[in-house]
Design goal:
Elements (H helix, E strand, L loop, with lengths): L20 H13 L8 H22 L1
Length: 64
Amino acid sequence: MTCDRLVCANCAGPVSEGRCPVCRANRARLEQEGGWSSSISPAALIALLVTLLAVLVVVEHATA
């Protein structure tokens, strides 16, 4: 998740701007939690899933 579209409940400003301490703390927390899954786009995840399904179909067809 990115903080581009999040709105702070404390100051009602965008979290990405870091207007208040709450915004800055949440922005820092989101940046720290940004593991491998946050860097992969949804399109890339769908492509990976389709590729995995295609491999499974080929393997299943080859063993039948």
